[in-house]
Specification:
single chain; 187 residues; alpha+beta; four-stranded antiparallel β-sheet; three-stranded mixed β-sheet
């Protein structure tokens, strides 16, 4: 058996790992996993990017969860939470991009010279054919919306110690900066 140098082993391992990842991604799409992207999938189409409002779906569940945990803080009482999301959910598709550039130099009969530059660019979304013959786009990346602001209204929010505890808990639970969380007293 021939012994490979250490650098060649690492290169072969990296190639095999990359090929394995590509096979896993392709297999998921051929099984139809990419077509199950969520409700409201094609709300807005931009070449290479599709946005859909997953924030609406995720928001209600996360708000309920946060209300449940914050209401358990001593003295908080009934709690309501509203989340503000940074943007909608985006899917970035793989694209075939073709760019062409040409430069033509011309000389007329009076020895005048002119240069003409021409440039064009076309892009098309890469599709994978499934076993049933349908095609689905190849998704490169999913960008999830981020929580940008939090409003908490709590019966005990007028008490400074309780408001501070609610503020710290929400900031920690959502991974947001303290200035992004506001706590108010409810009735």
């Amino acid at each position: 058996m021939m012994k490979l140098p250490e650098g060649k082993k690492m290169q072969n391992l990296a190639i095999m790992l990359l090929a394995g990842i590509m096979l896993l991604v392709a297999a998921a799409y051929f099984r139809g996993g990419a077509s199950q992207t969520g409700e409201g999938f094609a709300a807005a189409y931009i070449p290479g990017i599709v946005q859909y409002d997953a924030a609406q779906t995720a928001s209600s569940g996360l708000e309920s969860q946060l209300e449940n945990i914050l209401s358990r803080i001593a003295g908080a009482g009934e709690v309501s939470v509203m989340l503000h999301w940074s943007e909608s959910h985006e899917l970035v598709f793989a694209q075939n991009i073709t760019e062409q550039y040409s430069r033509t130099a011309e000389t007329d009969s009076h020895e005048g010279q002119r240069t003409i530059d021409s440039q064009s660019r076309t892009a098309s979304v890469v599709s994978l054919r499934q076993s049933d013959g349908s095609e689905i786009p190849l998704i490169l990346r999913e960008i999830s919306p981020q929580v940008q602001g939090v409003i908490i209204v709590a019966q005990g929010g007028g008490d400074a110690a309780i408001a501070a505890a609610l503020h710290r808990a929400a900031s920690a639970a959502l991974g947001v900066q303290p200035h992004q969380v506001q706590v108010f007293a409810g009735n």
